[in-house]
Amino acid sequence: MVKQFYGIFKDNSITMAELKTKQTSADVIEFINAFADTEQKRQDSFELLKLMQDFTGYEPKMWGPTMIGFGSYHYKSERSRQEGDWMLVGFSPRKAAISLYVYTGAPEHEHFLEGLGKFTMGKACIYIKKLSDIDQKVLKKLMKATIDFYQEKYG
User: Quick one: CA torsion of 100, 106, 111, 116, rounded to 10 degrees?
Assistant: First the structure.
């Protein structure tokens, strides 16, 4: 989900470079119109844009060149010195499927997936072919649990 690059110096010390994926000022509407490769994906993207903005109360922002995010939090890794900012929830209308960044992966949130509908899982996201394949009420419950989790964990 978050890509981090490290520099190793001659004395074998390690330094963290800047995060590759971060919030940008690119236009979200222009991105959807240019990047969504089918009319269905474009319509679903605009519907997700409205749904996530209305639900979260946050304006959509581009994260990197291909992800649309809502809200943000600052994290610090418990296992390394890695830290940075990341979206609370978001999506991307990728070629193979729409990627939903709405799930923490926490075991206590797995029960939300049962009623979500037709999807596949990646390491850090949920893939759907079209928005009508999933239950939007369940999606909202999943987003609420995710937002609450990140806000409680990272403030």
Answer: 0
Q: Which residues contact 43 (CB under 8 A, 6 or more apart)?
A: none
As a whole number of Å, the CA-based R_g of the chain is 16
- Taking the model in full, what pTM does it have? 0.84
How close are the terminal C-alpha atoms of the chain, in Å? 20
Question: What is the distance, to the nearest Å, from the Cα of residue 61 to the centroid of all Cα atoms in its chain?
Answer: 11
Q: What is the pLDDT of residues 64-104, one digit of tens each?
A: 999 999 999 998 877 777 888 999 999 999 999 999 999 98
- Amino acid, single-letter form, for residue 111: H
14: its two tokens: 């390690």
Residue 71 φ/ψ region, left for φ over 0, alpha for ψ in the -120 to 50 degree band, beta for the rest:
left
Task: Give the residue from 112, 23, 104 showing the smallest Cα distance to 70.
Answer: 23
Nearest CA among 137, 135, 128, 120 for reference residue 91: 128
